[in-house]
């Protein structure tokens, strides 16, 4: 029998709670749901008003993994949706606004990915993001070195950056912006990526070409394009272990000397929130937003 839970007055059918999704640690679907429910206070503000793209892995990371943007079949009518522009025409997408919707979405077993704009202002970014992706044998250690350079470069333009792990191999840099057309943000992000490569040519590459990336950090500026999305803070990732895209302090970035220092699992997040609160909370405060030069 499928258990039914009530969340904020909405009845949600929860399936396969004992199913092991992360065999490396034995982490079950029930534990995934518990993680999202207990992290909701920090996660929800980063999802609110942003159209959600689903990277689903219902049988765990070793099973079928597929990306979906349209509202899934069977979505309850109490889950918020919004029509958003796409190059191939408008699409209707889920917008997770509350705990009930978060639990419903988590039951689908998904990574949460969102754009740098909100549904009320499509293609107008209120954030800038850099995805620092290391080419082996480079690791998050080298990403931290690049992140520190970008932090200083952004600060020179009056933009304060914050960091989180990607939940995979790399690091994400984010900053709040006054509303700016996504096209302009993308141009600026590319300018900084090129500048980083010029400043650190042995360490950084700004082009996606695979053959250029071994031993270097690819500074992916393209995720600022209006059509692109980035893993949301606190989302679980479809990796062998239940890794999380976790906010980190700049002190942690500065002191990172081995890849394991900046790898966090679902079980690490509650203690980190207790110690630090949401390290990315400033992104939610319009008064902290920087302006592109």
UniProtKB/TrEMBL annotation:
The keyword Ligase applies. Residues 28-279 form the DNA ligase D polymerase domain. It comes from the Bacteria. InterPro entries: LigD_pol_dom, MtLigD_Pol-like, NHEJ_LigD. One of its GO terms (molecular function) is ligase activity. Keywords: Ligase. CDD domains: MtLigD_Pol_like (cd04863). Pfam families: LigD_Prim-Pol. PANTHER family: BIFUNCTIONAL NON-HOMOLOGOUS END JOINING PROTEIN LIGD. This is ATP-dependent DNA ligase.
